[in-house]
Amino acid sequence: MIVLIAPEKDIPNEIEILHQLFQEGLVYYHLRKPFKNYQEHCDYLDAIDEKYHSRIVVHLFHELVNAYDLKGVHFQEQKRIDHIDNPGQYFKKLDMYGKTISSSFHDPEVLAQCDFEFDYHLLSPVFSSISKEGYEGKGFNVNHIDKYIVGMGGINDETVNPTIKLGFKGIGVLGGVWNMENPAERFVALKKQYGVAVQEKKRTSIRNKNF
Q1: Which site among 36, 80, 90, 109 is 20 to 30 Å from 166 CA-CA?
Q2: Domain locations along the chain
Q3: How many Cβ atoms sit within 10 Å of the Cβ of residue 81?
Q4: How many Cβ atoms sit within 10 Å of the Cβ of residue 63?
Q5: pTM of the prediction?
């Protein structure tokens, strides 16, 4: 799984680039636009070909799942703390049939002890962030946690393989795609590296079992 996070602030030709990314196989696009209000989120979604809406996960305004055929909703850390203790009440007004539910974590042990069954979990920062200055990587090793965890923070050509070796099943990217000269080409390259890294991890696991 490769999760691409939206740039916080709009960039030139963003929607055009996003369509290219979808055409190159992007399946999990996390729409995180903290400076946009509800209507601006709608305007953003309306600018995207609706055939790609089912690949979009919203961080803010979860009620958008009632108006658009979206992939799912994501809980940022504070929102999870505020609402997930009483999920039945929170999801009561949301049409969540067939949707994914994910959340952000910054501590692997908090993630491991979380009782709510998220479809996947974003854990950061694994390596020093490309998009956030001063966001130092922690090198989390999650091989001991039996959950689907996506590693974020500093994901680029050099860190894809180490991330998978640390036990992450997926990678999350922001600056490693959006900050590049050709985001679509960079995404394709990362996707290829991710596939190689996953296969190598499987081969290593099989070898270890045979000894």
Answers
A1: 80
A2: 2-210
A3: 12
A4: 13
A5: 0.93
